[in-house]
Structures are given as C-alpha cells and as structure tokens.
Amino acid sequence: MPIWTIAKYEILRKLRTRYVLLIQFLMPLLLIFILGSALSGVFKVEDKALNSVKVDILQSDSGALQEGFQKFLASPETLKHLQTHVISSREEAINRLKDGESEFAVIIPNNFSAQVQAGKAAQWEMILGHDYLKNVTAQMVFRTYFDKVNQMQAIQITTRTKPSYSMVWIGVLNSYHSFLFVYV
C-alpha cells in the first residue's frame, strides 16, 4: 500500500508545479511538431520514373553466349530500359562516357564463352556513368539476364533433361558469372 501513496503524492506534486507540466507534456509535443515539419521532405517516399539508359556494348566474344545475349538485348522488355550502341574499344567507351554520349558501358571479353563453358571464372566489365539511378537501372537489367539463365538451369536440373547445345553454357554460367565495376 505505501507504493500507491508515494505514486499519488508524486503525481500531485508534479501537477502543482506548472513548469514540470510544461516540460513533460508540452515540450515533447512541440518538438514532434517542429521536427515533423522540418524533416517532412526527407522521409517522403515517391516513385521515380525510369528513363531509358544509353548503354555502350563492346562484345568481343563470338562464342555460344553471343546469340542468347543478342536475343536478350533485342527483347521488347530490354528495349524499354536500354538504348544500346555497339562500340569497338574500351577507350571509346570511356571517352563516350566522359563526353556524355553514353551513360553506361558493358565490355564482354573475347574469351568469355570459352571460359564459361570450360567452367573457369569469367567476368564482364561494367563501366559506370555519372548518374546513380541510371547505373542501377542498367545493372538490374543485366542482372535479369543472368536470373533468367539461372532459372533455366534450375528447370534443367529439376527435370533432369539433357540440355541442347545452346543450353550447355547455362549450367556453368550459374556459378561463375561476375561483374567488374569501373568508375569513370
């Protein structure tokens, strides 16, 4: 019973002193209002429209992966997000990025298909432009290519079907694809 007496006494004492009432109840409400008004723009979540990204592609590889990648680039879903331009050298890609003629570059080495089919580590080089949102957009579009490839491989493994010649590279690509990012 003495705990209730102490609690009652403390509540009455705090209610009698006006500055305590002001500090305990009104100041936090005032702070919430001020901070809410000041930071309202910081926490606003809104959708951003994804614009098409100008991508330079240097495909030195002429192996089995070339045809599948060309089909991927020609698909309507990819064309909504990427405007591709074929280039002839890495230096041209860097110069075009610096000049603002392109916004992202992908360089596929000449032995990419062979390394993937041999089960060795293989990588693409992605040269990032100056716009973060466009870099992320291009990276995600190319990531969908590898996700589709991995999905096809999973179906093959699950159904235990014998892959056709064009599907041979899919199994190896699942474990060994990687990207090398270069900032310009």
TrEMBL record:
<feature type="transmembrane region" description="Helical">
    <location>
        <begin position="21"/>
        <end position="43"/>
    </location>
</feature>
<feature type="domain" description="ABC-2 type transporter transmembrane">
    <location>
        <begin position="20"/>
        <end position="181"/>
    </location>
</feature>
<keyword id="KW-1003">Cell membrane</keyword>
<dbReference type="InterPro" id="IPR051449">
    <property type="entry name" value="ABC-2_transporter_component"/>
</dbReference>
<keyword id="KW-0812">Transmembrane</keyword>
<keyword id="KW-1133">Transmembrane helix</keyword>
<dbReference type="InterPro" id="IPR013525">
    <property type="entry name" value="ABC2_TM"/>
</dbReference>
<keyword id="KW-0472">Membrane</keyword>
<protein>
    <recommendedName>
        <fullName>ABC-2 type transporter transmembrane domain-containing protein</fullName>
    </recommendedName>
</protein>
<dbReference type="Pfam" id="PF12698">
    <property type="entry name" value="ABC2_membrane_3"/>
</dbReference>
